[in-house]
Amino acid sequence: MERIKLAFPDSAIVHRQPLSVRVTDMNYGRHLGHDTLVSLLHEARIQAFGALGLTEWDMGGFPSVVVDLAVQYQSEARWPDALVVETAIPEPDGQAIVVYHRVRHAEGGRPVATARLNLVLVDPIQGRSVALPDVVRQAFAGAESA
């Protein structure tokens, strides 16, 4: 089986979000479940967008939609571990916004997971993706490494 190799772009970090593993976040293996990890990534992403003056439901007049997600797991997290989710968003060069997340243990920095996802903005009336508005491109271009 070939594993996904995700290269996290440290120079594009725009936000760091502290989160913790709740007891309800654990799966039958008694560690952080995949479904919960996706929810933690979502929370970190919306916080990162907010720090840039954006919301996922209104990016220059259009909502964003996740079109794909890849996750590479590196270690387990369990209740009550404190985590930090680093969000990196390289400057967009097409219609997609590429978002990277790196989840680490707050103490010691041991990586839990790295994720990469693509977002597109959608015209809700036509149901089609649209070009990124200048205000969105400028928000990401102006973001400095956190």
Please report which band the strand proportion falls in: under 5%, 5-15%, 15-25%, 25-35%, 35-45% or over 45%: 25-35%
Number of helices: 2
Helicity level, as a percent range? 10-25%
Rg over CA atoms: 16 Å
Mean pLDDT across the residues is: 94
Q: What sort of overall outline do the alpha carbons produce when their principal axes are compared? A: globular
Give a short account of the largest sheet: 6 strands, antiparallel
Would you write up a description of this structure?
The chain has helices at 34-51, 134-141, and strands at residues 13-20, 64-73, 82-88, 97-105, 111-123, 128-130. The model has no long low-confidence stretch (mean pLDDT 94). Strands 1, 2, 3, 4, 5 and 6 form a six-stranded antiparallel β-sheet that branches. It is of the alpha+beta class and 146 residues long. 29% of the residues are buried. The termini are far apart. The protein is globular and about 45 Å long. 18% of the residues lie in helices and 34% in strands. It contains two helices and six strands.
